[in-house]
Amino acid sequence: MFFKPNFLLLDYAIRSLMRRFGKSFFIFFILSLLIFVLASVLMIADAIKLELNTTLKTLPQITLQRFIAGKQSDVPLERVEALLDIEGISAVTPRVWGYYYFKPAGVNFSIVGIDAYEEQYSATLSTLTQRFDIKLLEKENGMIIGEGVQKILSENYYTEFFNFITSEGKWQRVHIAGVFHSDLALESNDLIILPKKLAYAIFGMDKSKATDIIVKVANVKEIPTIVQKINERYPDMRAITQDDIRVSYQNIFDYKSGFFLALFSICAFAFFIIIYDKTSGLSSEEKKEIGILKAIGWSSDDILKEKFYESFTLSLSAFFVGITCSLFYVYALQASFLRNLFMGYSALKPSFALPFSVDVSMLILLFLLSVPIYIAATLIPAWRASTLDADEVMR
Amino acid sequence: MSLTPEIIALLTLDTIFLFFGVIAFFLSFRLALYWNNDASTPLQYSLTKQSYLVATIIKYIFMLKLPLFLFFIYTCDKLSNIIAGAMCASGVVNSVDFGLYLTLFKLFNLYLFGFWLLLHYADMRCEKLPYTRLKFILFVAFSFPLFVEIGLEIAFFVSLNISKIVSCCGTLFSAASSSYISLLFVVDELLWVGLFYGFFAMSLLAFWLKHNVLILFSNAMFLIFAIIALIVFFSPYVYELPTHRCPFCLLQKDYYYVGYLLYTLLFLGTFYGMGGAMLSLISKEKMRFSKLSVGFNTLYVVIISLYPIVYFIRNGVWL
Q: Which of A73, A263, A309, B113 has the fewest CB atoms within 10 Å of its CB?
């Protein structure tokens, strides 16, 4: 009814763009570049969010942390037994873990203490306990390290063992018993696994306490009720559920990409002023063209339509080029530069491949942020051009 | 407020609409005052030029508003993931007092702008431009709901508090709710369904009789009762859950996004019905859009009726 595609007019519009190749190409190039940057950032954010959400499933259902005066502190082990009384909880595991700052390389290692006889709370840990003999580790003061840790240590000439400095200032010598690779590199690159006894010694922790407590619940739907019961019994414990973490991931990434978008919009605004300027300034050639068109019977409406076809073709093709380039950049080149925006910096930054995820809604979002805005910038200049009078411009 | 990329996109486009809307408002005000088709003054000459700009701006806004309405609902649906208590767009929409009015205004404006474009289309087809003055007077009137909508939308996203706990659609659309929606559940649901089919039959009859006022009336009533019947009677069959009555959850992935199809059909059908009838009343032209209207409305009725029928065949009981 309102919009019947007119292919002859489209053909004319494309030829008209081609006639002014230099000017069109400049706009096309900048617009593609803008869309490319924007699409890349949103795609990276989406891909990292997807990766985090996959690791989310391997995280414990409920993590209990104890807070004293607003600071996280260790949990007494007697609470573990007491928690088992709550109906619906199928397993409670105290964890001993923390960070060890290795000064020469300026990095933090994540140290996790494990026990041979207890059930492991994550899939990564349980495969590790199957592959390596934990009892042997305890006997020989050994540890298992991630690939990233091995690289850092060997750069500092620790190939066989490593000397931890305990909180009392003593040296604690631990053998490197094995190195592991994991599919989910995010959580394992900076990981050191050693027996709980050693972890207590390195951190200088009280042996009747744990860093935090992991709770496993048989029925997922009962999690909110169980969290409520735990809060009633121990008001100083804070429960973090998988759902809480999911929501905060979403918030962080929405915030990060929103922040970027807010900055981007300034850049886009500047670009559209240029567009406005470029499309307003008609050369005498173009004016003459419009005059001739009008003289041979085109109406203002036809010229407006033709201008619309021009800007739509230009912006839509720039949109496709931008999207294609950013797909290639993000997934084939792994967004080698921009991903740092989201990953933060750390010497032991985990290396992982961005999982492929493109949903239609993101493409719609990108479309709405580019094509209509470009057309808006050309709306008034197009109208100005279309209402030129034939006799005036051909004179 | 939270600035997710979707919200920024919506707000950016709102700003553009506001900018163009203000330009169009002032120009159409001038056009409505001074337009005189018989004059050959410089003023009339420049007004003719400006009328093109206003029409282009309105076309631009309308063409974008169509997909943006769906995008707005989608954004609310996505926000329901991070707002505690919300399970679909209805929770998010109702988390702000005027959220429902915003949605209604959006819908209302689509009908208004669509009608304006129908009039414009009829105007441009006629050499004498008989409705030019009328259409600009109308746009001066129509721009107020547009500005209200933009204002409400900005206020909506500013006051949207993602840490506030909101109600889920299960409580909003139930007899226990204290809002006016609960009144719908007091009346027997068969009455609503009867009215829904009744007005559909009336619109068919009106089409057959080619009676414009009746088409207009029956389509307006059909739209209202279609939505009520959808909430009260049909939605539990879509969800296959007797207690779940919600007009928004239809739009979710779990139900194959069927809501987008259903609402598009319903809105297109009633729009062509009402707009076409209104146009024929004004211009006494032949009815051109009624066929489309009947087609879309029938398709809607068939699809929505299939849900309870298929449910009954498969399970042998009504919900």
A: A263
Residues 6+ positions from B20 with CB-CB distance below 8 Å: A376, A379, B57, B60, B61
| Average pLDDT of chain A, as a whole number | 83
Q: How many CA atoms lie within 13 A of A166 on its CB side?
A: 14
Contact B12 A1 (CB under 8 A): no
User: How many CB atoms are located within 10 Å of the residue B254 CB?
Assistant: 10
Name the β-bridge partners of A63. A214, A240
Residue closest to B252 by CA, chosen among B232, B270, B235 = B235
Which one of A365, A382, A383 has the shortest CB-CB distance to B9?
A365
**Tokens 């007009």 belong to residue:** B247
> Per mean pLDDT, which range of A42-56, A191-205, A337-351, A354-368 is the poorest?
A337-351
What is the reported pLDDT for A284? 79
End-to-end CA distance of chain B: 41
Band the pLDDT of A1: cuts 50, 70, 90.
very low
What's the mean pLDDT in B115-144? 87
Q: Are strands A209-210 and A142-146 parallel, antiparallel or unpaired?
A: unpaired
- A107-114/A89-102 β-pairing: antiparallel
Backbone angles phi, psi at A71, to 5 degrees: -110, 140
ipTM: 0.84
Q: Do A2 and B20 lie within an 8 Å CB cutoff?
A: no
Task: Round to whole Å and give the CA distance between B27 and B50.
Answer: 7
Identify the burial level of A215 via C-beta atoms within 10 angstroms of its C-beta, where 0-12 means exposed, 13-18 middle and 19 or more buried. Answer: buried
Q: How far is CA A339 from CA A40, A336, B107, B170, in A?
A: 9, 6, 40, 41
| C-alpha–C-alpha distance, residues A335 and A11, integer Å | 37
Confidence of residue A188 (pLDDT cuts 50, 70, 90): low
**Residue of B56, B83, B118 to mutate, interface with A, max A Cβ within 10 Å:** B56
Q: Do A368 and B3 touch (CB under 8 A)?
A: no
Boundaries of every domain in chain A: 7-55+247-394, 75-210
Q: B193 to each of A143, A382, B234, how far by Cα in Å?
A: 71, 51, 9
Phi, psi of A102 (to 5 degrees): -105, 105
* Residue B53 C-alpha, separation from nearest chain A C-alpha, in angstroms: 6
Question: Which of B18-27, B29-38, B146-155, B181-190 has the lowest average pLDDT?
Answer: B181-190
What is the phi-psi region of residue A358: left when phi exceeds 0, alpha when psi lies from -120 to 50, beta otherwise?
A: beta
Residue B265, pLDDT above cutoff 60: yes
Q: Is B287 exposed, middle or buried (0-12, 13-18, 19+ CB in 10 A)?
A: middle
Long-range contacts of B300-309 (CB under 8 A, 24+ apart): B300/B226, B300/B262, B300/B265, B300/B266, B300/B269, B301/B197, B301/B200, B303/B261, B303/B262, B303/B265, B304/B226, B304/B230, B304/B234, B304/B262, B307/B234, B307/B237, B307/B238, B308/B233, B308/B234, B308/B237
Residue of B13, B81, B121 with shortest CB distance to A368: B13
Q: Is the pLDDT of residue A275 over 60?
A: yes
Sign of CA dihedral B150, B156, B158, B159: positive
* Distance in angstroms (rounded) separating the CA atoms of residues B173 and B245: 6
Q: Give the pair of three-digit tokens for residue A10.
A: 């489209």
Output the six-digit token pair for B68. Answer: 């943006």
Question: Which tokens go with A97?
Answer: 């873990």
**Per the structure block, which two tokens stand in for A72?**
């996280």
Residue B183 CA to chain centroid, in angstroms?
23
**Where do the domains of chain B lie?**
1-165, 168-319
- Structure-block tokens of residue A234: 């121990």
Distance of CA A392 to the CA centre of its chain: 57
Alpha-carbon distance values, B29 to A231, A268, A355 (Å)? 63, 32, 54
Structure tokens at A113: 């203490």
